[in-house]
Design goal:
The complex is a heterodimer of chains A (149) and B (414).
Chain A (H helix, E strand, L loop, with lengths): L1 H6 L2 H8 L12 E7 L4 E10 L2 E10 L2 H14 L4 H16 L25 H14 L8 E2 L2
Parallel strand pairs in A: 1-4
Antiparallel strand pairs in A: 1-2, 2-3
Chain B lengths: L12 H6 L7 E2 L2 E2 L1 E2 L10 H14 L9 H21 L7 E4 L2 H16 L5 E5 L8 H10 L2 E5 L9 H7 L4 E7 L11 H10 L3 E5 L11 H4 L3 E5 L10 E5 L1 H6 L10 E4 L4 E3 L13 H17 L1 H19 L5 E3 L9 E6 L4 H10 L2 E2 L1 E3 L4 H7 L4 E5 L6 H18 L1
Parallel strand pairs in B: 3-15, 5-6, 5-7, 7-8, 8-9
Antiparallel strand pairs in B: 1-2, 4-10, 9-10, 11-12, 13-14, 14-17, 16-17
Helix pairs in contact in B: 2-10, 3-10, 4-5, 11-14, 12-14
Classes of the chains: A alpha+beta (149), B alpha/beta (414).
């Protein structure tokens, strides 16, 4: 049960029940669809860029507790960040969820609550869907549909 | 907790379990409960032994050489075909075409029969409860010839709406493709009745038997269909082998599907001629150990008796249906009057993937997701379900363990 309790800790359950920034964003300059065809999780990410700064970000969609909480926590972490900082955060998040359970968790603030997913390899995609969607949303080529498969 | 009807006489589930070595293991420190049988079943010792025997004694290519091993391999391979023919009560083994799986059987018919018999403006009719494998091959056919794919609706209980189905059968309907047992809902379709309606409309009927064939006796002649497909790995046999049954006269008329060795009678650079049935549809070296393993699997099932097996699973399905109701907020998806083997469910707004991960920690394997039936999920307005699916080796204890784990799910997810 210890791994389970770490995976489904209170912060994650709270963000699943009451996802933050869970709405459409009218002022969005980038809108990006993310889809995991294997499990059917899908989300739409809205990003409002001013120059290279993320002034607002929100999402909508359906998914499991992990994917929803991860998207919710991500939107909180991104507000006010530059695109470059967001990319660096993506890298640290990706490193965290794909590292060995015994590895040290990188400096990543509140997002560290998702480190428990490392013990559940089949669920890593759930946690990373929002982040892959973000990376596509802020790519210089502009949005293309993203899939975690 | 639930009904206490006695187990069918003559079927000893404890003895049956002992023949499945994989079941005797712990997962996450708990004895394995395997309830993902609709995805694939486990393999009994006689199947494992047949495959080992083939590779340790008989391995050679089939239908080719004059040496002893090739003769033995060919005999064992063709014996597998004869066993499948008997298991499905085909008129003769020439009507059994080995495929990779049920999906390939459907694609074979959609291409080899469809491209010569379905024209622009014609219609193909399927049902709203089909697996992707019985949707997409027909979409490919319809797109390539300009035909129209029509879909018969299902009720809120997950039953085919027979009246609407009948209305959709028209003068342009060339072929109808329906499942005998829905993998996402557990609904058993009335195939005989459907066959009568389809033939009255002068169309053909393909039945997807991927799920049905390992849960109930199948007699393709009495069902009255024209094509029937099965997959080996759900029939307690190996992966990579399946079978298409078709009426001999229909298979004779169909052009080959894939070209290569084994499917020809003679080859010159000017033209080639085709081998007899069923080899016309079996290009290249076949899945020899697959056919042998599948033959051993259907022998195993026949020895138990499909009626016995079905009675055991029916009792478990009733028990599980009642037992699951004790979980607060649980709702079954698929409540047809005629059902088999499938317990698909949602629990309030808990996502099935979270349910799946938590019960896995209790050593219980269930499937979570859309079950390759996204239109079914759309029909019920849900993204996914959790699904427990039964096999001959499951017990009431397995279902009790599942119910306990679902109470833990409620506790963990709040």
């Amino acid at each position: 049960m210890s791994g389970l309790n770490e995976l489904y800790q209170e912060v994650i359950l709270d963000h699943n029940r009451r996802p933050r920034n869970f709405r459409a964003l009218e002022a969005a300059t980038r809108t990006q669809e993310g889809f995991n065809p294997l499990c059917g999780d899908r989300l739409t990410l809205y990003v409002q860029l001013e120059g290279a700064r993320i002034v607002d970000v929100s999402f909508q969609g359906s998914g499991c507790a992990i994917s929803k909480a991860s998207a919710s926590l991500m939107t909180e972490a991104l507000k006010g960040k530059s695109v470059e900082e967001a990319r660096a955060l993506f890298d640290r998040f990706h490193q965290m969820v794909t590292s060995a359970p015994t590895d040290e968790v990188p400096e990543i603030g509140k997002l560290a609550v998702l480190a428990g997913v490392r013990e559940f390899p089949t669920r890593i995609k759930c946690a990373s869907l929002a982040w892959h969607t973000l990376r596509a949303a802020v790519s210089s080529e502009g949005p293309v549909p993203v899939s975690t498969e | 907790m639930a009904t206490t009807t006695p187990l069918p006489i003559g079927f000893d589930v404890g003895r049956a379990r002992a023949e499945f070595p994989i079941l005797a293991q712990d997962v996450h420190g708990k004895p394995l409960v395997y309830l993902d049988n609709a995805a694939t079943t486990q393999k009994p010792q006689p199947v494992l032994d047949a495959i080992t025997r083939y590779y340790t004694r008989d391995n050679a290519n089939v239908h080719r050489a004059v040496h002893a091993l090739s003769g033995r391999a060919t005999d064992a391979f063709e014996a597998g075909r004869a066993k499948v023919a008997r298991f499905l009560n085909a008129a003769n083994p020439r009507e059994i075409v080995f495929t990779r799986n049920a999906t390939e059987g459907i694609n074979l018919v959609a291409q080899a029969w469809g491209r010569t018999n379905v024209a622009a403006g014609d219609e193909v009719l399927i049902s709203a409860m089909e697996h992707h494998s019985n949707i997409v091959p027909w979409q490919l056919l319809c797109d390539s010839v300009g035909a129209r794919l029509r879909v018969a609706p299902i009720t809120d209980r997950g039953e085919l709406e027979l009246d609407a189905f009948e209305r959709l059968l028209g003068p342009r309907t060339r072929i109808v493709a329906v499942t005998q047992l829905s993998n996402a809902l557990g609904t058993v379709n009335p195939i005989r009745e459907i066959a009568t309606l389809v033939h009255r409309a002068e169309a053909l009927l393909l039945v997807d038997g991927a799920q049905a064939a390992y849960h109930m006796p199948v007699d393709v002649q009495s069902l009255g269909c024209d094509f029937y497909v099965v997959t080996g790995h759900k029939l307690y046999g190996p992966t990579g082998i399946g079978a298409l049954w078709g009426r001999e006269a229909l298979l004779e008329q169909m052009p080959p599907w894939q070209g290569g060795g084994d499917m020809i009678r003679s080859v010159t650079f000017e033209r080639s001629t085709w081998n007899d049935l069923p080899y016309k549809f079996e290009a290249g070296t076949p899945h020899v150990e697959g056919a042998i393993g599948l033959g051993a699997a259907v022998d195993y099932l026949s020895a138990i008796g499909m009626e016995q097996l079905a009675a055991h699973e029916r009792e478990l399905l009733d028990y599980g249906t009642t037992a699951l109701q004790s979980v607060p907020g649980l709702r079954l998806i698929g409540t047809a009057a005629r059902k088999a083997s499938i317990l698909s469910f949602v629990i309030d707004d808990l996502h099935p993937h979270d349910i799946g991960t938590i019960v896995d920690q209790e050593g219980i394997a269930i499937r979570t997701g859309h079950h390759c039936a996204q239109p079914v999920m759309d029909r019920f307005g849900i993204p996914a379900t959790a699904r427990a699916s039964l096999a001959l080796y499951n017990t009431r204890d397995d279902l009790d363990r599942l119910v306990s784990a679902l109470h833990i799910v409620r506790k963990v997810l709040g």
